[in-house]
Amino acid sequence: MVCVLFFDGACRGNPGPMAIGVVLMENGQKVKEVSKRVGIGTNNIAEWKALIEGLKLAKAHGCRELEVQGDSQLIIKQISGEFRVKSDNLVPLFNEAKELCRGFEELRFKWVRREENSYTDELSNRALE
User: Fold this and answer.
1) pTM to 2 decimals?
2) How far is CA 70 from the centre of its chain?
C-alpha cells in the first residue's frame, strides 16, 4: 500500500509552546490526522516531533511504501542525509526518526512549498490556539 505523509511543526516564540500537524493519506484518502501540543521548545524541535509522530502513524497503519512531504527544507535535507544535524538537542530526535525509517520497503522524502503543506500548517497552528 502506498501512503503519503504530510507533516509540519509550529512554535509560538523560539523557544515557546510547540504543536504538530500530521496527515496520513492512502490512495488519495485521508487515513488519520493529528493536531496536538507537544511541549515547549524551538520550531526545529516541533518539526522533528511532527515527522516522528507521522512515521509512527505510518508504521502503525502498515504502510510499506511511504512518501514523506514537509515544508521544512532543513528537516527534509537532514533526514535524507544531504545535511548533517549539528545541534546537540536535535541529534536524539534525528536518531529516533532514522530508526523509525527502517522497515519501509520504499521511503522517499520530498520538500514542498509552504502553500502545498497548508493543511498541516493549519493543524499545528490550531493546536496552539
Assistant:
1) 0.96
2) 7
